[in-house]
Structure formats: C-alpha cells, structure tokens
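Can't paste images in this forum, so I'm doing it all in text. The chain is below; anyone willing to post the predicted structure tokens underneath?
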Amino acid sequence: MKREAFDTASQPRGAGVDYWKLTTRQFFGPLGTTNLAPHDFEGRMLVYHAGPLRLYTIDASAHRVVRDHSEMGDAADNYKLLLQLRGESEIEQRDGCVTLKTGDWSLYDPRVPYSITSRESLKHMVVHIPRERLRPLSVPPLHTCEPAEPELRGLYSVLSSFLASLSSQLDSLPDGCGSTISEAALALLASTLQAHRGGQPEATPLPEVLRLRVRQYIESNLADADLTIERIARDLRCSKRYLHRVFEGEDATVERYIWRARLLRCKQALERPEPGGRSISGTAYHWGFNSVAHFSRLFKAEFGVTPSEFVRARRH
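Text version of the structure:
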C-alpha cells in the first residue's frame, strides 16, 4: 500500500517540534505541540490511504498536543479513532478523561477541543473516518474500548486486535485492498456503536450496520461475475426488499455500487499495468464484467473517456 512518510530526523537539531506542527497541520488541522521529553522532540508519521479512510502510524517521543477552537481544516469532516500501540496516553475532551494503555482505543470528534498527553515514548495508529460514514449512528462523547457491559468487551477487543494487526501489515498490503480493509474496519466500529446504543447487538442488523456489511461483502467478492443482489441477500440472511430499502437515500443503489467499485478496480489496474499483464478486456473480465462493450460504455460514462483512450493517455 502506498504511503507518505514524515520524519523529524530530516530536520536540523532543535527544529523537531516546529516541523511536527507543520506536518500534522496538513492532516489534523493546527495542533499545539509541547515536547515533554528530556531531549529534542523526535517523531515519525506514515500516512496511508485506504478507500474512504486515511490511516496513520505515529512513533514519537513524549509530548502533548492540544486542539482548540481555531481553524479546523479537514478535521471538520472526520471523526478520529486513536489506537494505543505502545506506551500510555491520556485524552481529555469536554468533561471526560480517558487513559489509553497499549491495545486501548478511543473514538472522538475533533471539532470539539481536546488534548492528548503522552509522558513517555509512544506509538499510535490514527484512523480518519469520514463523518458521513457514521452519520446514521449515534457517536457518544469520547467513545472508548471500555464498555459498560462486561459481555461486550470481546466485541470491542476484536476491533482493537484488527487495527493492531492491520498497523503492522500496512506496508505489505497491495494497493487494491484499501476499500475492503476500510469496510471491515467500519463494520466492526459500527457494531461497537450499535452495541453501545442498545446494550446488546440486535438480532436484525440496523440499516447502517447492514450497509457496511454489504459494502464489505461486495468489495471482497467483486471479481465474481455472479455477484448479484440475490446472492448478497442470501449470504447476509436478509430479504432483497430490505436490502434495497436500507440503501434508500444513498447516492448509489446496490447494483450501482457494485459496478462503480468494479470500474474503480479496473481503472486502478489500467493506471499501473504490469509487464505482460492483462489486456483491457482481460481486466474487465477479471473484475466481473461479462461484456467488454458494456464495460466500455460504463467506463466512459463514469470517467469521461473509453478504456482505450484512458490507456493511451497514460502512455504519453
């Protein structure tokens, strides 16, 4: 998976904090940063784009960051989930204060002022989640991995384990799996929010949870030409009518979501052709299209050019 890397080691001695402020501002908006280590601040951040999510791994020495009411930047459009991979951190927001130990996570709204204090070296995984993806769900203030009901701890732990495992494998993952990973993470998070709201997961999935499960299923089975609404409804144990109903109000029906996702995979493959790789028709068939002519029409309607024109333009 492609990444961007930022490291204070590239800066002159004593310039680490200023560099860190400028770097984090690009992604999190302006943050006040105070070095708490007995030496110059050291920090390294890797940024990954995975479908609708943006993932960060941060290794840093002891420090404190503070978000106030100033300019928000992209932070206004996202929730943030922070997973403690090493060390211990304290998050304060509104009247809440949570201490995160290794393996703990917290979901919070960056539009509300907060501070994060780490008095020792740390490693964090931060996930930027588009606000619209959690819009149907009720996000409690400073939602954490410590549920009130002991029987829900296993559910919360699954999300922690998934993200921790993901953080260690990001560099080895292929570019095309970002959407699948995102949908899996969103489905797990939605389950914790659903359980928090109702105390117990419901026998019938909430519409927003089912939408996430459907997207995850589609992304995992895009290459299957027989991927149909009938199959999705059968495998997810719901009726076709209910499946259609939970996608009402979305910008795409289930059918349209399938072919848009397939077109995106084809476009990504055609952007980075490998020597001796698939032809345009081979790419279309590989991602579940049954007709090259139909694929070409949809591709042009979606991207404004035919697949052949797209490939020729990429060669020049």
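Residues 3-175 form a domain with the Jelly Rolls fold (CATH 2.60.120.10). Residues 199-205 have pLDDT under 50 and may be disordered.
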